[in-house]
Each structure stands twice: as structure tokens, then as C-alpha cells.
Design goal:
By secondary structure, the protein is of the alpha+beta class. It has 2 domains: 2-114, no CATH class; 121-299, Distorted Sandwich (Glucose Permease (Domain IIA)), CATH 2.70.70.10. The chain is built from 6 helices and 13 strands. The protein has helices at 2-10, 12-22, 28-48, 51-54, 58-74, 89-114; strands at residues 125-127, 135-140, 160-165, 189-191, 196-202, 223-229, 232-239, 251-252, 257-260, 272-278, 281-283, 285-287, 297-299. The strands form 3 sheets. Strands 2, 3, 5, 6, 7, 8, 10, 11 and 13 form a 9-stranded antiparallel sheet that branches. Strands 1-12 form a two-stranded parallel sheet. α2 packs parallel to α5 (58-74). Bound molecules: zinc ion.
Length: 300
């Protein structure tokens, strides 16, 4: 499955570009429709795709190539007939498919984009990014379930799942390695994102193997720390066993070490889950005044 998905993100766009450049379109309408369908497909994978798995920087290659391809593809318009063989079944079918694809991918892309807008911006709390020395990618983040699966669960509606990228722009060495150490973020030190009090600290669960179906460890958060700061409870979850350095009741300052990133609790691979909640409702978090979404990067 992961290889199939990888092909969609890394190879399929090349076929679509080839299609736009080389197909003998029967009419201007057909070319423009196919061009729009490719545009919507690229928007869909750009916004919804988890690029940290494949290569974050490839995400930007496709739009850049699309601009060049569009120049050559659209240049062919004047040479094509205005009207196609409107009665031909194959032609009608291809126009129908084109319209369907534009609507389908367009709808998903717009849905994803809607999650970039934070309606409750004034309620966001500003935190200090809790990790250093690296490039961090957001696997889940934003205000729509299509880019942040937590969004459907009120207390975690603005949660972030954060990965770290290696020099290849990938979150691991390989597509889905089974070794924890192959994930760049595994063992990365975690620092307090705010000054406040530790209201809960747990360090009793073992790491689970990556890419296994999440098991029930008794605590979905696994080893975790909850801080009370800025009027909210800030949760940092899935920490590495034996690394939690703070205790309940302790006061911490921004930048104090809390522990390390691990893979405990309800998780499929090493990542930092962070969310803030108040009275059972998720509170948006900003880092450096940015509300982050899937595929956002933080260079720290
Ligand atoms: Zn999460």
C-alpha cells in the first residue's frame, strides 16, 4: 500500500505532464478540462499529501514543473478545433471523466485549504517550539479533518503531530522502516514550550514497534507530560521510556528539559503529539505566531 501511495506522489505527476504535452486532444475544451483536472490533482496532493513520508521538497517540485508544462501545453490551444466530435461516445466519456475529476479533486483540495483558516485565532496560545537543532514537519495540523485527523475530537481539535526530517527531506530512512532508530525524531530531546506547573507526568510504558496497529497500552498518550500554562493544559505525548525528567507538582520554565520523543501509547511511529485544551475543548497553538498545518515546516 505504501509503495502504491509513493508512486502516486512521486511518479504519477510525470505521467500526467506527459499526457498534457503529448495527447492529441480533439478540442480546446478537452485540453483545458484535462489541464484543470491535473491542476486540481496536484492541488490535492500538495495540500493533503503527507510529504514527510516521501520527500518534503518534492512537494514543491511538482508545482514548479506544472508551470513549465502549462506553458507548452496551453500553447497548443490555438491549433485545436473549437468544437470536438460532440456526438462521439468516447469523446463524451472523456469530457465527463474530466469534469468528474476536476470536481472531485477540487472539492478535496478546497476542503483541505479550509483547514488553513483558524476561526478562533484570538483564542490561540503562543508556545515556544519544544525541539531544537533540526527541521520539523507537521504530519497533522490545521482546522479540518482532511489535514488533521484530531480535528474531529473536540479536546484535541487543534493538536499537532510533528515529525523531524533528515537531510533527504524524509521523516525516516525508508518508507516504513520497522526499526525505531530509523525515524529521525526518535530520541530527540523535548523542552518545555512554556513556563508553568507539571500537572501530570507518566513514564511507565514501553515503546511499541513502528507501523504496527496501535495497541492499547492503557493510556493513548503513552508516556506523557501535561503542563498547566497560559490558562490551558498542554499535553506532550508518546515520550520515550525512562526519559521523562519532570514530576507532578514541579514548576518548569520555558526551555527546561522534559524528556525525549518516543513511540509509546496509541501511535504508529515516533512523533511528538502536542495539544492544548481548556474545559474539555481544544485550544489552538501557535509557534512564532504561526498556526501550522499538514506539511508546514519549522526550522529550529
Ligand atoms: Zn496525535
Amino acid at each position: 500500500m505504501i509503495w502504491f501511495q509513493a508512486a502516486i506522489y512521486t511518479i504519477l505527476p510525470l505521467f500526467l505532464f506527459y499526457h498534457l504535452l503529448k495527447t492529441d486532444f480533439a478540442s480546446r475544451k478537452q485540453l483545458i478540462l484535462d489541464w484543470l483536472a491535473v491542476l486540481m490533482f496536484l492541488a490535492f496532493i500538495f495540500i493533503i499529501g503527507p510529504w514527510h513520508i516521501y520527500n518534503h521538497y518534492l512537494r514543491w517540485l511538482w508545482p514548479a514543473l506544472f508551470i513549465i508544462v502549462s506553458f507548452f501545453a496551453l500553447k497548443r490551444i490555438p491549433k485545436l478545433p473549437m468544437k470536438g466530435p460532440e456526438k462521439d461516445k468516447g469523446y463524451k466519456f472523456s469530457i465527463g471523466i474530466g469534469i468528474g475529476l476536476v470536481l472531485y479533486f477540487g472539492f478535496i483540495a478546497v476542503n483541505g485549504l479550509s483547514g488553513y483558516i483558524l476561526a478562533e485565532r484570538d483564542q490561540a496560545i503562543e508556545l515556544t517550539f519544544p525541539m531544537e537543532n533540526g527541521v520539523y514537519a507537521f504530519g497533522h495540523g490545521g482546522a479540518d479533518p482532511s489535514i488533521n485527523y484530531h480535528n474531529e475530537y473536540l479536546p484535541q481539535q487543534y493538536a499537532y503531530d510533528i515529525l523531524q526530517l533528515n537531510s533527504w527531506g524524509m521523516r525516516a530512512s525508508g518508507l516504513s522502516p520497522t526499526n525505531l532508530e530509523d525515524y529521525k525524531i526518535y530520541g530527540t530531546p523535548l523542552y518545555s514550550p512554556c513556563s508553568g506547573e507539571v500537572v501530570h507526568a507518566v513514564d511507565e510504558y514501553k515503546d511499541i514497534a513502528p507501523q504496527e496497529s496501535p495497541n492499547e497500552q492503557g493510556s493513548p498518550a503513552g508516556n506523557h507530560v501535561i503542563l498547566s500554562c497560559k490558562g490551558a493544559d498542554v499535553h506532550l505525548s508518546h515520550m520515550k521510556p525512562g526519559t521523562v525528567e519532570v514530576e507532578e507538582g514541579e514548576e518548569v520554565n520555558t526551555g527546561d528539559r522534559l524528556g525525549k520523543v518516543g513511540n509509546t501509547g496509541n501511535t504508529t511511529e515516533p512523533h511528538l503529539h502536542i495539544h492544548a485544551e481548556k474545559d474539555g475543548e481544544g485550544v489552538p497553538i501557535t509557534f512564532n505566531d504561526r498556526f501550522l498545518k499538514r506539511n508546514s515546516l519549522v526550522f529550529n
